[in-house]
Amino acid sequence: MTPFDWTAGYPTVRMPIFGRNVVATSHALAAQAGLRMIWQGGNAVDAAIATAAAKTITEPCSNGLGSDAFCILWDGTRLHGLNASGGAPAAWSPDYFRTKYGAEAERPPCRGWDSVTVPGAVAAWVALSERFGRLPFADLLEPAIAIAERGYLAPIVVQQKWAAAARIQEITRQPGFAETFLPYGRAPHVGERVTLPGIARALRAIGRTKGRAFYEGEIAEAVARHAAAHGGAMTVGDLAAFRPEWVTPTQLEYRGHTVHEIPPNGQGIAAQIALGILQNFDLAALPPDGAEAQHLQIEAMKLAFADTYRYVADPRAMDVTPETMLDPAYLAGRARLIDRQRAQVFGAGNPVRGGTIYLTTADESGMMVSFIQSNFMGFGSGVVVPEWGLSLQNRGYGFSLDPASPNLVAPGKRPFHTIIPGFLTKDGAPVMSFGVMGGNMQPQGHVQTLVRMLDYAQNPQAACDAPRWRFNTGLEINAESTMPAATRQGLVDRGHQVATLEDSYQDFGAGQFIWRMGDPATEGYVAASDPRRDGQAVV
Fold first, then answer.
1. What percent of the chain has pLDDT over 70?
2. Angle at 491 (CA atoms; ends 490, 494), nearest 5 degrees
3. I need a labelling partner for 305 at 20 to 30 A (CA). Which of 43, 145, 184, 454 fits?
4. Are residues 513 and 433 located together in one domain of the fold?
5. Same domain, yes or no: 463 and 502
6. What is the CATH number of the domain that holds 534?
7. What angle do CA 188, 190, 191 make, to 5 degrees?
8. 25, 356, 361, 425: which one is catalytic?
9. Domain check: are 184 and 253 in the same one?
10. Which domain holds residue 286?
């Protein structure tokens, strides 16, 4: 291996790129896989599926074939939403977990088979292809298969997260993990070749059967056998019963634009609540990187999370509707709770009275896709069905065992989800497909980047590059070291407990943005890709 210092580098400014067909994601090979589909006569949906499949190979520390997924897409005429998050196995109940983990257990475990809900990502690929794709489904998986079999060199940021996971025994001791993802008895080093032949084999079966092998056939049977052998409850029946759901995105008006998110059980509504609160302040009159503008956004985000964590669940179990939570009068009342000079800790209001990957694609016909898939906590449950390279998410950890919680676990119920694709329109026309991955950083990233673009007219790449903060709990926030010192001090003076961090990967998310510049066939799009990851936007 070449003896480079992979940590040496300098602050850089990425340039926005322009084109009529665009793919943006957090690994270059995956972005190129999607663009290849467009060159072969496919559309933005074909590109999104090829990119998503390649991401299971190039960033396994964030997603895999056992992930869930959400999508918002503009088909050239109107907007569609797809919820491909799976439900709890039929055997799951509060008694199931308390019998296994004790009467004092508050939620399912965060690793192992008892954290795994039905994976939805593969079903999302199939549903999108059947409804909107042009190319044969199996063809869309060929670039990922080639990458998995020929191998690729471990990139810098992915390697950091992979190595971090390899130090967590709770992950590495899970069945199948080490033999699949510790090929050298450890995580690969930067620049070492990675091959994942099991995933290639699974992708071939998925492509050949249009996903049936995964949910009804040989892969489903292997999953059920693995679960039974290691104390899990997942069955072929649980997998076969799953169907992704076409949904109408929620919407909120902000600065003359409409912000669209997938409705609950996801947390996209948190971004909309925060923006609806900020609508009551003249942010444009404040310096974009000053303490006051950042303080208002942080406080709005706190209020949004307070309501989101109290009310958002599988919509069948929610006490209130998303429309009620987004009522302008209610949000104006929440805005009045903000003190412009003092940080506060907020509780939920009462609206009744009033370790993820993201990708986006767009083509010259006008189709735009905002797509996200995730294992949740890095490698997710840590469980891997080794003969298929199938790593499984741990979304079951989003359930509660509290009978008063709207997220109380139940058979077939969807858990609270963090992953959120975003979309922006104006007067009913498409403007931007976008997303910022990274746990509860996702709605915070949506808010911060949209404020920069819509309040301050910063271009998408500048809005993406700008320093970010992250709210944690109470008065605690993290700030990137690139945030001006005077701004950080101004936040401290207002009572925020600010910890400055260098590790952008873990704490500040990563975004991809495609903004429509006019007629897609002539003016095309401008795209941005986050420098906090290994990826790029390609045209």
1. 96
2. 90
3. 454
4. yes
5. yes
6. 1.10.246.130
7. 100
8. 356
9. no
10. 248-356+419-538
43 and 174, same structural domain?
Answer: yes
pLDDT of residue 356: 84
Q: 55 and 30 in contact (C-beta within 8 Å)?
A: yes
Stretch among 134-138, 354-358, 398-402, 458-462 having the lowest mean pLDDT: 354-358
Give the whole-angstrom CA distance, residue 135 versus residue 47: 10
Count of domains forming the chain: 2
Which residue, chain included where needed, has tokens 């869309």?
Answer: 140
Residue 159 lies in a domain: yes
Cα(475)–Cα(466) distance, integer angstroms: 22
Q: What value does the mean pLDDT take over residues 352-363?
A: 80
Phi, psi of 155 (to 5 degrees): -80, 170
In terms of domains, do 164 and 295 share one? no
Residues 233 and 265 in one domain: no
328 and 218 belong to one structural domain: no
| Residues 49-77: tens digit of each pLDDT | 999 999 999 999 999 999 999 999 999 99
Domain-embedded: residue 13 = no
- DSSP assignments along 372-417, one per residue: EEE-SSTTTT--EEGGGTEEB--GGGG-B--TTSTTB--TTPPPPB
- pLDDT for res 349: 73
Amino acid present at 306: A
Is residue 425 flagged as an active site residue? no
Return the bridge partners of 193, or none.
Answer: 153
Evaluate whether residue 471 is within a structural domain: yes
DSSP 134-172: -S-HHHHTHHHHHHHHH-EEPPHHHHHHHHHHTT-HHHH
Q: Establish how many alpha carbons lie within 13 A of residue 472's alpha carbon, considering only the half-sphere containing its beta carbon.
A: 13
**Residue 132 domain-assigned (yes or no):** yes
